[in-house]
Amino acid sequence: MRKGANLAVPAATVRVVMGWQGGAGVPDADCSALLLAGGKVRGDHDFVFYNQPDHPSGAVRHEGKQQANGGVTDTVSVTLSSVEPAVERVVLVASSDGGPFGRVPGLHIRVLDGGSGTEIARFDSTDATTETAFVLGELYRRDGGWKFRAVGQGFDNGLRGLATNFGVSIDDDPPPPPRAPAPSPAPSPAPSPAQSPPAAPPARGGGFVPGPGQPPAVFDTSGLEEVAPHTWRDGNGDVMQVVPIDLVPDLPAPLHDLAGLRRGLALTYARGGGALVECDPIELDGVPAVRQIIKIKFPNQPTGLVFTGVLLAPKATGAVILKAQCPEYGTTGMREAMTMARVGPQAFFVPSPFAPDVDLQGMGGLPSNVADRPEYDAQFPQHPLTRLRLLLARMQATARVGDPFRNLPPFPGPQ
């Protein structure tokens, strides 16, 4: 299945199997489920995971992990006929421990008939980069039955952040030594649309304090559709997010070491099957940050790419990310083919500007080419890479960073 596709689920009971390839240096991962009514859990009992494996209704159960032939699976079973009438969706979540999903090869989800074991659906998530949690898919009611949708929406703040977005109250660890206070997420119920981040906060460079339920940074969301907490979509179907992270950022070098930062990120994305297109130091409302553009193969398609933009402001104890994703649908490869026809094959492919001495394609990465350069955007105004650069420019220009985050200690580099 491709991202966003859906199909009917004819079985009364299904086993949802999340799988990936294990190995040295590969982060561990876990599967969990959220039972939603009105887009939120009704209480913490609607969160089924390894520490709370059984839903009180008996409809959803976390079965646990298995390993075989280098692969790892984690399984959740769902008895659809026993799901309470108030529950509209069962959201199927993956979370990583020890690194982002860009370092987890072969991540996929399968929906199996609980009786026969027949595969009903499979979705491969191949565009992961910095995410540490994913909504891989969802089971949802439709016309008296159930359907499965491949979602593939990533989050950079882990299972805790994703679950909190859906209304789960997660107890904090014992408090660390005092530091600059940060606002806590609002408990259920969710804020109404009127409480969404303001389109244009009144001040830049200080003086902005996020309200209850707001992330530590906002940007101009006027004209966008809010499709999930802190997540918006525009008329092209491109998605934008604000993602707070309460962990030390996983960057290969401090921001002032631009060469080391670029090289380390280029190697990381190549190992995950993608490529670093751009990486530049910026300021996000006066806060030091790094702007990245990454491309990766479109899942379940022989051609096509997904372009992801990241505006990452790291601090010593956390980070905030403004993120945009622009997938390539329909006819693919036109920008590359037309550019190659103009410049010729020898001039089209170029070494990575960030790690020219390394065979990144040999590591599984995508090739670098001149068609990705900004000077070709005007010739291809509807291409996803062109759209992504415009979205990042909008997000950077209108970003407001809250004072509690702004005042945190600066990012010292990898520890």
Description of the structure:
It is a single chain. The protein is mainly beta and 415 residues long. Helices cover 13% and strands 35% of the residues. The strands form five sheets. Strands 13-14-15-19-18-17-16 form a seven-stranded antiparallel beta sheet, sandwiched between helices. Strands 1-11-10-7-3-4 form a six-stranded antiparallel beta sheet. Strands 5-6-2-8-9 form a five-stranded antiparallel beta sheet, with no helix packed on it. A hairpin with a 4-residue loop joins strand 18 and strand 19. The protein is globular.
Task: Give a concise summary.
Belongs to the CAPAB/TerDEXZ family. The protein is built from 6 helices and 22 strands.
Low-confidence stretches: 172-202
Total number of helices: 6
- Computed over alpha carbons, the radius of gyration is 21 Å
- By DSSP, the count of extended strands is 22
Strand order within the widest sheet?
13-14-15-19-18-17-16
What share of residues is helical?
A: 10-25%
C-alpha geometry: globular
- The overall pLDDT average reads 85
The secondary structure category is mainly beta
Strand content: 35-45%
Report on the biggest sheet.
7 strands, antiparallel
For the termini, the CA-CA separation is 40 Å
Spell out the helices and strands N to C: EEEEEEEEEEEHEEEEHEEEEHHEEHEH
Pfam family, one: TerD
Protein name: TerD domain-containing protein
Family: Belongs to the CAPAB/TerDEXZ family.
InterPro entries: Stress/Tellurium_Resist (IPR051324), TerD (IPR003325)
